[in-house]
Amino acid sequence: MLDAVRRSGLHFVAFVCITMAISPTFVVAQGFVELEFSDQKSGELVSARILFTKSAKKLSRPKKLLFAGDQWLAEKKIQITPPNGDFEFVVQRGPEFHEIHGGFSIEPRAKDNVPIAIPRSIAMYEEHWYSGDHYSSLPLNDLQRWQRADAVDMVVSTEPVSSTNSKSGRSSTS
Asked: Which one, of 110, 118, 51, 48, lies nearest residue 82 by Cα?
């Protein structure tokens, strides 16, 4: 009888430990940061590239966020749930914008919004200059998203453009 009580007690302890390990309560205890990117002059929200340059702990990239190497594509706003600690970053947005260096600290249960205003270094359109990327092998959908982040006017892609033949419903490349 005593062995049965001990076994059921061990099952209960194991159940409590597993429940605590996967409980959403522990996720709530971790803080989050929302980074918001804007054009300094217009205040309009914009896409940009962000690179985290210094952190004592590993920073997990949010799902569905495009990345190239260590740079992430930040489309207007991103929310991250970093481990507690200090983080430094570099934000880039094409040839006509200054590079921004910044950082933040996160503590348990902290909720923070970090606005990042990106200033222009030159008004290219006023000078009748346009920017572009003359070679890219990215898929077209991804390419358009990176193009907005880099604030370039034109991109040449090596990917074939597909179109659908309306009569046959077949896809062809042109």
From this structure: 110
Buried-state track 91-119, b at ≥16 Cβ within 10 A, e below 16: bbbbebbeebeeebebeeeeeeeeebebe
DSSP state of 74: E
Cβ atoms within 10 A of the Cβ of 151, count?
Answer: 20
Residue type, 27: V
What stretch of H or E contains 140? helix 140-150
- What is the DSSP annotation of 3-63? HHHHHHHHHHHHHHHHHHHH-HHHHHTS-EEEEEEEETTT--B-EEEEEEEEESS--PPPT
Residue 60 has φ and ψ, to the nearest 5°, of: -85, 135
Q: What's the CA gap between 16 and 76, in Å, rounded?
A: 41
Which pLDDT tens digit goes with each residue over 121-170?
887 778 787 777 777 777 778 878 887 888 887 778 787 776 554 444 44
- H or E segment to which residue 101 belongs: strand 100-106
- pTM, whole model, 2 decimals? 0.66
DSSP tally for the chain: helices H, then strands E: 3, 12
Report the distance separating Cα 100 and Cα 125, nearest Å.
22
User: What CA–CA distance (Å, rounded) separates 140 from 146?
Assistant: 10
